[in-house]
Specification:
alpha/beta, six-stranded mixed beta sheet, four-stranded mixed beta sheet
Length: 478
């Protein structure tokens, strides 16, 4: 098995010695020695670090190389200017001293995303040090570790046993006597380890990674756009979504099923935060059937015209109940086909689903009707023609909806927008206003909970159902 690369990730500011003190603490405590060092800092911090740690001494060693030489450490961590990252401000310029709220948001986004990216790589482990830099920077580093760290990642802090050594000339306790001046330059101090020590504390923290949606984590860490405006998800967005998930208020959320041209999207909006607009993309061919099924559920939740059930059968059902189930499967198929026609912006085929001859009416126009449903595969066409919508078609669409939502939302938030099955009875549906409740075998049937707590909107372009669409439909049904 290939050994993982161990990375020391540190925040530094005006005192780059926290980095070498941390390295000494790792050595002293016999912790895993880093293969590489990554530093996040400001423009000012980068200058201090470069002048302090990269300059060579008389032995042609920089400070880190000298530490390794002093203690017989053969593996000098990879560390150069390429591993020093200066945080950008809101205008993507290097931060010297973040003061504005926009700069603080950019700083938070950069640090948290850097941790997410490192933790998204299974080939490394992270030791994060929060000993240096601005308090806000170390907070974001520590908080990012609680969000994204894995079981082998760790968080630490270092302190010196004698505050007198918190000066620019001290980098780590040496195994030999070495004189340096104190802060006031009126007294000599000895850097020898018998006079001063470094205390490295392993900071316990709660890891929340397993509670996050890993697909969304990848979207956040990789900078993949998450809506149709090519907006990349920020740390503020990520936090806001998690907070919504943890403390839901359904009245604040709007689900917009977008059937406009060239879009197969669910758009989630928040009443009090216009910046949070998430597009959930169903545009892949394999997702279209699921998208339209979802749109059908949303439309019926909005209009309460038809209670949607999982159309299963049981050996205990009477012949009359089985005939009713068969009719319901074709009623559901008609409802689904109507939604496809909404999606294609063509005239909606109107059939009376309550007549005795409904199934014959549905099948009499079936072949011509499905000619324009190009994304409905041949297997589905044959199955629906023979049986209506069976439970396996129904379950497949719900599973596909779940898969797409889980790629795009935090785990907790996902459940708010997922149709799901639960036990209920016809009285429940009638009590909330559904007009056409199927009555046969309902007590034994799982139903779909239709997102009834959400504000739902169906976006269509009625202007597109014009002469060319009507002409196409008329040629099919003439």
């Amino acid at each position: 098995m290939k050994n993982k690369k161990h990375i020391l990730l540190s925040i530094t500011g005006g005192s780059p010695a926290v980095l070498t003190e941390t390295l000494y603490g790792i050595y002293k405590n016999n912790l895993t020695w880093p293969d590489e060092i990554q530093v996040i800092t400001t423009q000012y911090g980068e200058k201090q670090l470069r002048l302090a740690l990269f300059e060579k001494n008389d032995q042609d060693n920089n400070v880190i190389e000298q530490l390794c030489a002093d203690y017989g450490i053969e593996n000098v961590p990879c560390f150069s200017s390429d591993q020093v990252h200066i945080v950008p401000d809101a205008n993507n310029n290097f931060v010297d001293d973040a003061r504005s709220e926009a700069d603080q948001e950019a700083l938070a986004d950069y640090i948290v995303k850097a941790v997410a990216q490192l933790c998204d790589d299974s080939n490394n482990t992270i030791h994060a040090s929060i000993s240096g830099g601005r308090k806000t920077m170390t907070f974001y580093l520590g908080y990012a570790m609680t969000l994204f760290a894995r079981k082998d990642d760790m968080l630490s802090h270092v302190l010196l046993t004698d505050p007198q050594y918190e000066i620019s000339d001290f980098y780590y306790p040496t195994p030999y006597s070495n004189r340096i001046k104190n802060y006031k330059k009126d007294k000599w101090l000895d850097t020898q380890s018998s006079d001063v020590d470094v205390v490295l504390s392993n900071i316990p923290f709660i890891r929340q990674r397993e509670h996050l949606n890993l697909s969304m984590l990848h979207v956040f860490s990789s900078g993949i756009p998450f809506n149709s405006e090519n907006k990349k998800i920020t740390y503020a967005d990520f936090s806001y979504l998690q907070n919504i998930a943890n403390n839901p208020d359904f009245s604040d959320l709007t689900l917009d099923v977008n059937l406009l041209e060239d879009h197969e999207l669910l758009v989630i909006k928040h009443k009090y935060n216009e910046g949070i607009i998430i597009d959930i993309d169903f545009s892949e061919r394999k997702d279209k059937m699921a998208f339209i099924f979802y749109s059908m559920i949303a439309r019926n939740t909005l209009n309460k015209n038809f209670a949607i059930f999982r159309p299963s059968t049981s050996k205990d059902m009477s012949d009359i109940e089985k005939q009713s189930i068969e009719k319901y499967r074709y009623q559901l198929a008609h409802l689904y086909f109507c939604e496809i026609e909404h999606y294609l912006n063509i005239d909606i085929c109107k059939l009376d689903i309550d007549t005795v001859d409904f199934i014959n009416d549905f099948l009499s126009i079936y072949d011509k009707r499905v000619e324009v449903f190009t994304f409905l595969n041949e297997k589905s066409r044959k199955s629906i023609k023979s049986y209506g919508i069976k439970y396996n078609f129904f379950d497949d669409r719900l599973n596909e909806i779940s898969e797409v939502l889980e790629r795009s939302l935090p785990q907790e938030l996902c459940s708010f927008f997922k149709p799901y099955k639960e036990k209920s009875d016809v009285e429940h549906f009638e009590s909330i206003g559904y007009k056409n409740c199927y009555k046969a075998g309902i007590l034994h049937t799982n139903i779909v909970n239709n997102l009834s707590k959400l504000s739902i909107k169906i976006s269509t372009n009625e202007e597109k159902a014009k002469a060319n669409s009507r002409a196409l439909l008329n040629s099919i049904f003439r």
